[in-house]
């Protein structure tokens, strides 16, 4: 579901998240919330005990989506008197490494909302509960295209919460006609950069590594590249280099607030100080609810190849939970028509959920960019390395680190040759 790109994305500790599976030496990366897999329960109203379970979801901290998520929990709790779900709000930047460390230590939340890389990593490490005999995809009407990513080595470990493609968002008070190719895009950004306004926003620093990875995927995909062919790494291939050099060209053009976090430049967008960014639909939602509201337009990403990255998220049950039945009950409830509609309504503009539930006409009117995002979603791919999904977190950090070196003067081809070698080592080491 629904992770809006509005939350800050930074990597608080640079330790590779994959290490958490085999060692618990990440004590320096302490979570904001540390739910434990205990068997605590509380007395019911004369009807036995209430099982207490937690749902880890980065969106609880979002000002627009968080309250709707809480309303979902309240709805479930009111209809399930023997189960009580509460939130486990763990920030996005350290989410994967925090939860995987907790699960590897026998603790952690009961139900977890993952992005694709962390989900694959946890599943391959045996940290999630198999759901093959619990979820009947055909009976539930799950959409096959995204649902295939919930199955790892033939075993289902989760269900789709949502998929959200990226597109070009532009401030209509600054730009009247969006660019349609890369040359126009760069020229538009340069023309808009004046009088305290920047033409574009993008992440460029290691503390923003997870989000910077998402940005890089759009440039690589948009210039015909991919990080692998599904069987072999292609990190240093010609089209990957072409896309990354286009990213560097934007960074070097003097059109971005260099070093700014995503939170900062998105706030600039809401304040009329940023003309464009490539992002997911939550930015448009937050802009519409700003005081005063900011009207954003949406358009296809103006790169040569119309293939974009998407945020694909899954819900899964912890392999360490002491409340497996209660957690699975909540997971299956999330797939009911009523809950699916609540997820869709809570989600950022352009999000699709596990089933084919649709927004009402009134809800669509409140999210006018939905159709534009839907078109972009037809050519969207999860931001993972195909064939190496479970190692994407570790490999992406190596890639981001070397791209930053290229921003500081290293040749991009040389940087990606080194990233390819580092990725091969990560894979060889399991």
Which secondary structure elements does this structure contain, and how are they paired or packed?
Blueprint: E1 41-43, E2 49-56, H1 65-79, E3 83-88, H2 95-104, E4 111-115, H3 116-124, H4 137-140, H5 144-147, E5 151-152, E6 155-156, E7 159-165, E8 167-171, H6 182-192, E9 198-201, H7 209-222, H8 238-252, H9 262-270, E10 274-279, H10 282-288, E11 296-299, E12 308-317, H11 324-333, H12 337-346, H13 361-365, H14 370-377, E13 380-382, H15 392-407, H16 412-428
Parallel strand pairs: 2-3, 2-4, 9-10, 12-13
Antiparallel strand pairs: 1-2, 4-12, 5-6, 7-12, 8-10, 8-11
Helix pairs in contact: 1-12, 7-8, 7-15, 15-16
Instruction: Name the helix and strand elements from N-terminus to C-terminus, one letter apiece.
Output: EEHEHEHHHEEEEHEHHHEHEEHHHHEHH
The largest β sheet comes out as: 7 strands, mixed
Number of domains: 2
**Mean pLDDT across residues:** 88
Helix share of residues? 25-40%
Quick structural summary:
The protein has helices spanning about 65-80, 95-105, 115-125, 135-140, 145, 180-190, 210-220, 240-250, 260-270, 280-290, 325-335, 335-345, 360-365, 370-375, 390-405, 410-430; strands spanning about 40-45, 50-55, 85-90, 110-115, 150, 155, 160-165, 165-170, 200, 275-280, 295-300, 310-315, 380.
């Amino acid at each position: 579901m629904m992770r809006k790109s509005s939350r800050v994305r930074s990597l608080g500790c640079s330790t590779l998240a994959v290490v958490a599976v085999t060692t618990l030496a990440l004590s320096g990366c302490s979570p904001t919330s540390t739910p434990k897999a205990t068997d605590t329960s509380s007395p019911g109203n004369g009807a036995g005990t209430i099982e207490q379970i937690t749902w880890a979801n980065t969106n609880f901290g979002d000002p627009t989506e968080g309250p709707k998520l809480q309303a979902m929990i309240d709805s479930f709790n009111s209809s399930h008197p023997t189960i009580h779900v509460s939130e486990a709000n763990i920030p996005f930047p350290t989410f994967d490494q925090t939860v995987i460390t907790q699960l590897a230590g026998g603790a952690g939340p009961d139900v977890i909302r993952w992005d694709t890389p962390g989900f694959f990593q946890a599943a391959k490490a045996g940290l999630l509960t198999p759901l093959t005999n619990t979820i009947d995809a055909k009976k539930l009407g799950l959409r096959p295209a995204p649902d295939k990513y919930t199955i790892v080595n033939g075993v289902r470990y989760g269900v789709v919460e949502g998929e959200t493609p990226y597109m070009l968002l532009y401030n209509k008070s600054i730009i009247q006609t969006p660019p349609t190719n890369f040359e126009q895009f760069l020229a538009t950004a340069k023309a808009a950069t004046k009088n305290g306004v920047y033409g574009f926003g993008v992440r460029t620093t290691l503390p923003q590594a997870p989000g910077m990875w998402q940005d890089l995927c759009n440039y690589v995909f948009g210039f015909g590249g991919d990080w692998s062919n599904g069987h072999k790494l292609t990190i240093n291939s010609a089209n990957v280099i072409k896309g990354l050099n286009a990213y560097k060209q934007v960074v070097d053009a003097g059109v971005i607030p260099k070093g700014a976090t995503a939170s900062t430049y998105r706030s600039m967008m809401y304040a009329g100080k940023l003309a464009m960014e490539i992002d997911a639909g939550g930015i448009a939602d937050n802009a519409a609810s700003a005081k005063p509201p900011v009207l954003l337009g949406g358009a296809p990403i103006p790169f040569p190849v119309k293939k974009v990255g998407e945020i694909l998220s899954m819900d899964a049950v912890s392999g360490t939970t002491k409340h497996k039945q209660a957690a699975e009950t909540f997971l299956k409830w999330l797939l009911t028509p009523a809950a699916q509609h609540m997820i869709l309504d809570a989600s950022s503009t352009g999000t699709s959920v596990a089933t084919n539930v649709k927004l009402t006409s009134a809800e669509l009117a409140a999210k006018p960019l939905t159709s534009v995002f839907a078109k972009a979603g037809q050519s969207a791919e999860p931001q993972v390395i195909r064939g190496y999904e479970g190692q994407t977190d570790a490999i992406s950090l190596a890639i981001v680190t070397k791209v930053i070196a290229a921003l500081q003067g290293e040749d991009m081809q040389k940087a990606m040759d080194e990233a390819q070698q580092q990725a091969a080592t990560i894979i060889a080491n399991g």
